[in-house]
Amino acid sequence: MEMNTNEWDEMRTQLGILKNKMEGQKIINDRLISDSLRAKNSWIERFVWLEIALLPLVLPFYFNMVVRFHLSWLPSILLAILVTTDVIIDYKINILRRDDFKTDNVLNTAQKLLRIKKYRKQGTIIGLILVAIILGWFFIDFYFVTSVNVARYGSLPKAILSGGFVGLLIGELVVFQIYKRMQRTTDEMICQIEELKKEE
Protein backbone atom coordinates (compact mmCIF):
# COMPACT_ATOMS: atom_id res chain seq x y z
CA MET A 1 0.00 0.00 0.00
CA GLU A 2 2.91 2.31 0.85
CA MET A 3 4.26 1.72 -2.64
CA ASN A 4 0.95 2.73 -4.24
CA THR A 5 0.94 6.01 -2.30
CA ASN A 6 4.47 6.74 -3.50
CA GLU A 7 3.46 5.92 -7.07
CA TRP A 8 0.47 8.28 -6.80
CA ASP A 9 2.66 11.04 -5.39
CA GLU A 10 5.16 10.51 -8.20
CA MET A 11 2.36 10.57 -10.79
CA ARG A 12 1.00 13.82 -9.30
CA THR A 13 4.48 15.31 -9.42
CA GLN A 14 4.91 14.20 -13.05
CA LEU A 15 1.48 15.65 -13.96
CA GLY A 16 2.39 18.93 -12.25
CA ILE A 17 5.66 19.09 -14.21
CA LEU A 18 3.81 18.29 -17.46
CA LYS A 19 1.16 20.96 -16.72
CA ASN A 20 3.86 23.57 -16.03
CA LYS A 21 5.65 22.66 -19.28
CA MET A 22 2.40 22.96 -21.25
CA GLU A 23 1.61 26.35 -19.71
CA GLY A 24 5.16 27.50 -20.48
CA GLN A 25 4.77 26.24 -24.05
CA LYS A 26 1.46 28.15 -24.40
CA ILE A 27 3.16 31.36 -23.20
CA ILE A 28 5.97 30.85 -25.74
CA ASN A 29 3.44 30.13 -28.53
CA ASP A 30 1.39 33.21 -27.59
CA ARG A 31 4.52 35.35 -27.66
CA LEU A 32 5.60 33.90 -31.04
CA ILE A 33 2.16 34.56 -32.55
CA SER A 34 2.10 38.10 -31.15
CA ASP A 35 5.63 38.78 -32.49
CA SER A 36 4.70 37.33 -35.88
CA LEU A 37 1.61 39.56 -36.20
CA ARG A 38 3.60 42.61 -35.11
CA ALA A 39 6.37 41.81 -37.61
CA LYS A 40 3.89 41.47 -40.47
CA ASN A 41 2.37 44.84 -39.63
CA SER A 42 5.70 46.63 -39.03
CA TRP A 43 6.32 47.68 -42.66
CA ILE A 44 2.88 49.33 -42.79
CA GLU A 45 3.61 51.29 -39.63
CA ARG A 46 7.05 52.33 -40.97
CA PHE A 47 5.40 53.55 -44.17
CA VAL A 48 2.88 55.65 -42.22
CA TRP A 49 5.64 57.17 -40.06
CA LEU A 50 7.60 57.97 -43.24
CA GLU A 51 4.54 59.82 -44.59
CA ILE A 52 4.29 61.78 -41.35
CA ALA A 53 8.00 62.65 -41.44
CA LEU A 54 7.90 63.77 -45.10
CA LEU A 55 4.80 65.96 -44.77
CA PRO A 56 6.47 68.92 -42.99
CA LEU A 57 9.33 68.75 -45.51
CA VAL A 58 7.14 68.66 -48.63
CA LEU A 59 4.56 71.32 -47.71
CA PRO A 60 7.01 74.28 -47.44
CA PHE A 61 8.54 73.34 -50.81
CA TYR A 62 5.06 73.11 -52.31
CA PHE A 63 3.93 76.51 -50.95
CA ASN A 64 7.21 78.06 -52.09
CA MET A 65 6.36 76.94 -55.64
CA VAL A 66 2.83 78.39 -55.27
CA VAL A 67 4.24 81.77 -54.23
CA ARG A 68 7.02 81.72 -56.83
CA PHE A 69 4.66 81.13 -59.76
CA HIS A 70 1.81 83.27 -58.37
CA LEU A 71 -0.66 80.38 -58.45
CA SER A 72 -4.21 80.52 -57.16
CA TRP A 73 -4.42 79.81 -53.46
CA LEU A 74 -7.70 77.86 -53.44
CA PRO A 75 -6.59 74.72 -55.33
CA SER A 76 -3.18 74.94 -53.66
CA ILE A 77 -4.63 75.03 -50.15
CA LEU A 78 -7.19 72.32 -50.98
CA LEU A 79 -4.42 70.06 -52.25
CA ALA A 80 -2.33 70.66 -49.10
CA ILE A 81 -5.37 69.97 -46.88
CA LEU A 82 -6.18 66.81 -48.83
CA VAL A 83 -2.63 65.45 -48.53
CA THR A 84 -2.46 66.28 -44.80
CA THR A 85 -5.88 64.70 -44.20
CA ASP A 86 -4.80 61.60 -46.11
CA VAL A 87 -1.73 61.20 -43.88
CA ILE A 88 -3.84 61.63 -40.73
CA ILE A 89 -6.38 59.07 -41.98
CA ASP A 90 -3.56 56.65 -42.84
CA TYR A 91 -2.31 56.98 -39.28
CA LYS A 92 -5.77 56.43 -37.77
CA ILE A 93 -6.48 53.41 -39.98
CA ASN A 94 -3.12 51.63 -40.10
CA ILE A 95 -1.44 52.08 -36.72
CA LEU A 96 -2.39 49.28 -34.34
CA ARG A 97 -1.97 49.41 -30.56
CA ARG A 98 0.26 46.96 -28.69
CA ASP A 99 -2.79 45.36 -27.07
CA ASP A 100 -4.10 44.42 -30.52
CA PHE A 101 -1.31 41.85 -30.85
CA LYS A 102 -2.01 40.00 -27.60
CA THR A 103 -3.34 36.50 -28.24
CA ASP A 104 -6.16 36.86 -25.71
CA ASN A 105 -7.34 39.79 -27.83
CA VAL A 106 -7.10 38.17 -31.27
CA LEU A 107 -10.85 38.02 -31.92
CA ASN A 108 -11.08 41.80 -31.51
CA THR A 109 -7.92 42.18 -33.60
CA ALA A 110 -9.41 40.08 -36.43
CA GLN A 111 -12.53 42.26 -36.45
CA LYS A 112 -10.39 45.39 -36.35
CA LEU A 113 -8.30 44.12 -39.29
CA LEU A 114 -11.47 43.53 -41.33
CA ARG A 115 -12.57 47.12 -40.59
CA ILE A 116 -9.07 48.37 -41.52
CA LYS A 117 -9.33 46.64 -44.91
CA LYS A 118 -12.73 48.21 -45.55
CA TYR A 119 -11.69 51.73 -44.47
CA ARG A 120 -8.37 51.50 -46.33
CA LYS A 121 -10.20 50.55 -49.54
CA GLN A 122 -12.68 53.41 -49.18
CA GLY A 123 -9.93 55.87 -48.26
CA THR A 124 -7.73 54.86 -51.18
CA ILE A 125 -10.51 55.12 -53.76
CA ILE A 126 -11.77 58.48 -52.46
CA GLY A 127 -8.22 59.79 -52.04
CA LEU A 128 -7.12 58.84 -55.56
CA ILE A 129 -10.21 60.44 -57.11
CA LEU A 130 -9.92 63.65 -55.08
CA VAL A 131 -6.17 63.96 -55.68
CA ALA A 132 -6.70 63.49 -59.43
CA ILE A 133 -9.42 66.18 -59.50
CA ILE A 134 -7.59 68.73 -57.35
CA LEU A 135 -4.24 68.11 -59.05
CA GLY A 136 -5.95 68.49 -62.42
CA TRP A 137 -7.34 71.83 -61.22
CA PHE A 138 -3.90 72.78 -59.92
CA PHE A 139 -2.21 71.88 -63.25
CA ILE A 140 -4.79 73.85 -65.26
CA ASP A 141 -4.32 76.84 -62.96
CA PHE A 142 -0.55 76.47 -63.23
CA TYR A 143 -0.75 76.32 -67.03
CA PHE A 144 -2.91 79.45 -67.37
CA VAL A 145 -0.98 81.52 -64.83
CA THR A 146 2.42 80.70 -66.33
CA SER A 147 1.36 80.84 -70.00
CA VAL A 148 0.39 84.50 -69.54
CA ASN A 149 3.94 85.25 -68.47
CA VAL A 150 5.98 83.16 -70.94
CA ALA A 151 8.72 85.79 -71.17
CA ARG A 152 9.26 85.61 -67.43
CA TYR A 153 9.27 81.84 -66.96
CA GLY A 154 10.44 80.53 -70.36
CA SER A 155 10.05 76.77 -70.83
CA LEU A 156 10.21 75.98 -67.09
CA PRO A 157 6.39 75.74 -66.65
CA LYS A 158 6.08 73.22 -69.51
CA ALA A 159 8.84 71.13 -67.96
CA ILE A 160 7.14 71.30 -64.55
CA LEU A 161 3.74 70.39 -66.05
CA SER A 162 5.19 67.48 -68.03
CA GLY A 163 7.13 66.22 -65.03
CA GLY A 164 4.15 66.76 -62.75
CA PHE A 165 1.82 64.80 -65.03
CA VAL A 166 4.27 61.91 -65.34
CA GLY A 167 4.85 62.09 -61.57
CA LEU A 168 1.10 62.00 -60.97
CA LEU A 169 0.69 58.85 -63.08
CA ILE A 170 3.66 57.13 -61.43
CA GLY A 171 2.46 58.26 -57.99
CA GLU A 172 -1.02 56.87 -58.56
CA LEU A 173 0.48 53.51 -59.66
CA VAL A 174 2.79 53.41 -56.63
CA VAL A 175 -0.08 54.24 -54.27
CA PHE A 176 -2.15 51.45 -55.81
CA GLN A 177 0.72 48.95 -55.42
CA ILE A 178 1.26 49.97 -51.79
CA TYR A 179 -2.49 49.64 -51.19
CA LYS A 180 -2.51 46.11 -52.67
CA ARG A 181 0.48 45.09 -50.54
CA MET A 182 -1.16 46.51 -47.39
CA GLN A 183 -4.35 44.57 -48.11
CA ARG A 184 -2.36 41.37 -48.74
CA THR A 185 -0.48 41.79 -45.44
CA THR A 186 -3.77 42.35 -43.59
CA ASP A 187 -5.22 39.21 -45.23
CA GLU A 188 -2.19 37.21 -44.06
CA MET A 189 -2.67 38.47 -40.50
CA ILE A 190 -6.39 37.57 -40.56
CA CYS A 191 -5.56 34.05 -41.86
CA GLN A 192 -2.99 33.60 -39.10
CA ILE A 193 -5.56 34.61 -36.47
CA GLU A 194 -8.16 32.23 -37.96
CA GLU A 195 -5.64 29.36 -37.81
CA LEU A 196 -4.95 30.22 -34.19
CA LYS A 197 -8.70 30.09 -33.41
CA LYS A 198 -8.96 26.64 -35.07
CA GLU A 199 -6.11 25.32 -32.94
CA GLU A 200 -7.85 26.49 -29.78
Q: Would you spell out the secondary-structure blueprint of this structure?
A:
Blueprint: H1 2-68, H2 73-94, H3 106-148, H4 150-153, H5 156-199
Helix pairs in contact: 1-2, 1-5, 2-3, 3-5
Architecture overview:
The chain is an all-alpha fold. It has helices spanning 2-68, 73-94, 106-148, 150-153, 156-199. The chain is rod-shaped and about 105 Å long. The mean pLDDT is 80.
SS content category:
mainly alpha
Distance between the termini: 41 Å
Number of helices: 5
Please tell me the overall pLDDT.
80
Report the β-strand fraction as a percent range: under 5%
Low-confidence stretches: none
Order of helices and strands: HHHHH
* Rg of Cα set: 28 Å
How would the global form be characterised?
rod-shaped
**Largest sheet entry:** none
User: Helicity, in percent?
Assistant: over 70%
Q: Count the E strands.
A: 0
Brief summary:
Helices cover 90% and strands 0% of the residues. The protein is built from 5 helices and no strands.
Which keywords apply here?
200 residues; single chain; 5 helices; 0% strand; mainly alpha; rod-shaped
